[in-house]
Design a protein that fits this description.
Order of helices and strands: HEEEHEHHEEEHEEHEEHEHEE
Helix content: 25-40%
Shape: globular
Structural class: alpha/beta
Radius of gyration: 17 Å
Strand content: 15-25%
Largest sheet: 6 strands, parallel
Length: 264
């Protein structure tokens, strides 16, 4: 019991820092980030997502990775490629600008990787001025639309097919923003297992998170932090799940069900 409480406290303490750590200086020539706004009582949701369970067949799990900005973790990418593990990768326009080699690897393996939209500037998709984990949200319907459209435009310019899924920064949304994004033609990707808490968990704790996944779960992790210990845990966990006979799927391959009208 004491170990559970300590683990829970650690997770609660690290998640806000995880998302705050992803904020960087805006690249030259890009539209300015929205101004920081004071916290408000905006109702935000963090939708869950599951894929259809295999039932009596091999357990089915969807691996999803956020490529927020910065670099690419070769430990994770090489494991996915070498072990022929399919996954859904959510990329931002900012990540695309600085990772042409990793993008080329993804595009060279269309049978493994599904590339989807993580936004233009990694700004929370909330249409009311507020902060999410200390990060200023988009703040208006127009800014939410630009975050989504800007991400998709960058993907198309990079030779990626039109995305069908969107996952916003911090994975939290206002209900009205969900309606807006769905109106733009996207499904919104929640998750059911937090694999690495923003890539801040120690490797062994990442392994415990992955080991808790069950048939139909969607795991979220990060593939853009090559210096973090979490990436070691992610790579080891993928191998461990494969050894258990898990069937890995991409979001595009299997029917799914999401909370808060994010997919249905």
């Amino acid at each position: 019991m004491k170990r559970f409480l300590l683990t829970s406290a650690f997770l609660l303490a690290t998640v806000p820092a995880a998302f705050a750590a992803t904020q960087e200086t805006q690249p030259a020539g890009w539209p300015p980030l929205p101004p920081k706004a004071s916290a408000s009582n905006v109702k935000l949701v963090e939708p869950h997502l599951h894929v259809n369970r295999a039932g009596k067949g091999m357990p089915r799990i969807a691996l999803t990775f956020d490529a927020c900005m910065g670099k690419t973790d070769p430990r994770i990418l090489s494991t996915l490629v070498d072990q022929r593990i399919p996954a859904t990768i959510f990329v931002t326009a900012r990540w695309l600008r600085t990772n042409p080699d990793a993008l080329a690897t993804f595009l060279a393996h269309p049978d493994l990787f599904e590339l989807e939209n993580h936004g233009q500037n990694h700004i929370p998709a909330v249409d009311i001025p507020t902060k999410v984990y200390g990060i200023a949200a988009a703040g208006s319907p127009q800014a939410v639309a630009q975050e989504v459209k800007g991400g998709a435009d960058a993907m198309l310019a990079a030779g990626i097919p039109q995305p069908r899924w969107f996952r916003g920064a911090t994975a939290k949304y206002s209900l009205s923003a969900i309606t807006e994004i769905r109106g733009m033609g996207y499904r919104i990707a929640g998750y059911s297992v937090n694999g690495d808490s923003g890539s801040l968990l120690p490797a062994k704790m990442v392994e415990k998170q992955y080991a808790s996944a069950k048939d139909g779960d969607v795991i979220i992790s990060h593939i853009n932090q090559p210096t973090h210990a979490a990436g070691e845990g992610v790579a080891a966990s993928i191998l461990a799940l494969k050894a258990k006979g898990i069937q890995f799927v991409r979001l595009r391959d299997i029917p799914e069900q999401g909370d808060d009208d994010t997919t249905n």
